[in-house]
Design brief:
Blueprint lengths: L6 E4 L3 H12 L4 E4 L4 H10 L4 H4 L5 E4 L2 H5 L4 E4 L6 H8 L8 E4 L12 H8 L4 E6 L4 H5 L4 E7 L2 H11 L4 E6 L2 H24 L3 H21 L4 H4 L2 H10 L6 H10 L4 H5 L7 H16 L4 H10 L5 H11 L2
Helix pairs in contact: 5-6, 9-10, 9-12, 9-13, 9-15, 15-16, 16-17
Length: 328
């Protein structure tokens, strides 16, 4: 293995380590940068049963101290960072993410109040042009445990589809291809936001029926936002949308779920947010979805109510009760 690899994975935490592992299991050289917050990430991964995500990577994975080192001359680059961290990494790499590289992000979320999608951030902050987005229902612990899953790779470029398929596909990892980048990105942002909504319902001790209605209405609103943005409706009902929502809303150890559950159980949202790591991707996604809805003049009362509770400190029980009584 040389100082450079044809595939680079840039991303701290269990997702970045998982992608590096999947690439290496296909006997492909890969360079991985795991970030500077390894102790925090390791604690979170241990809690979620992902302790082997980065600790026992195949020896062929080249561990790098900086993203620039991992990037090297890689032709295919995976950016496995949260949406909130993507702008800083994109600005840091800038022209290094050159047009000749294939760049695929796995950031499920939006850039807070601006509502920018990850591919819009990359197009604005880097020289990369052949972009892709990775979506779909996956829990790191399950993939490490050998469970099969389906990932979605979205790109306008067929060469991106093929490169990601070659890098990740196996008998356990199936890849679906789509050109609907907008749909996959907005569906992913909605799923992240609704993971916190599921936790909120748990904290409020809502029944499964009320919880299902709330999540279904929010998913319909997200689909409307997607259609107004040029996305395809079927994306929101497929692996990158509904299937991912089913997984995330049941993941009781997810950061967004735990945040929502604490707020629903009576802790003030602003007090929970003050704690380390509590400014979750779910809250950024809710900010971004609201900004998008207002810009496109799309009615999204469920998403708005969830934001009022989790970001704006509205009273959870009364707000949800009024929302459910109002109908769709």
């Amino acid at each position: 293995m040389t100082a450079s690899a044809p595939i680079a994975v840039l991303g701290p935490g269990s997702l970045g380590a998982l992608l590096a592992r999947l690439v290496a299991q296909g006997d492909q050289p890969v360079a991985w940068w795991g970030g500077e917050r390894a102790p925090v990430v390791e604690r979170r991964a241990k809690r979620r049963g992902e302790r082997d995500a980065g600790g026992k990577l195949p020896p062929d994975v080249l561990r790098c101290a900086t993203p620039e080192e991992a990037l090297g001359e890689a032709a295919l680059v995976f950016l496995a960072v949260p949406a909130g961290a993507l702008p800083d990494l994109a600005r840091r790499l800038g022209a290094r993410l050159s047009p000749d590289r294939l760049v695929v992000h796995a950031a499920k979320g939006l850039e807070g109040a601006s509502g920018r999608r990850p591919s819009e951030i990359l197009a604005a902050e880097t020289a990369a042009r052949r972009l892709g987005a990775l979506g779909g229902p996956y829990l790191v612990a399950e993939v490490l445990g050998g469970y099969a899953t389906t990932l979605v790779v979205a790109s306008r470029f067929d060469e991106v589809h093929q490169a990601v398929h070659t890098a990740l596909a196996s008998d356990r990892i199936r890849l679906e291809r789509t050109h609907d980048v907008v749909g996959v990105e907005l569906a992913g942002a909605a799923v992240v936001a609704l993971g916190a909504a599921a936790g909120l319902c748990a904290g409020l001790r809502l029944g499964s029926g009320a919880r299902a209605v709330l999540l279904a209405r929010a998913q319909v609103e997200a689909t409307r936002l997607g259609l107004a943005s040029g996305a395809a409706a079927e994306t929101f009902g497929g692996p990158a949308g509904l299937a991912d929502l089913l997984v995330v809303s049941a993941d009781t150890e997810g950061l967004g779920y735990r945040f929502g559950r604490r707020v629903g159980a009576g802790e003030p949202a602003d007090a929970v947010r003050e704690e380390a790591e509590s400014r979750t991707e779910a809250l950024r996604a809710l900010d971004g979805l609201q900004a998008l809805a207002r810009r496109l003049a799309v009615r999204a009362p469920t998403l708005e109510a969830l934001r009022e509770i989790l970001v704006g400190n509205a009273v959870p029980a009364a707000t949800i009760d009024e929302l459910l009584r109002a109908g769709s």
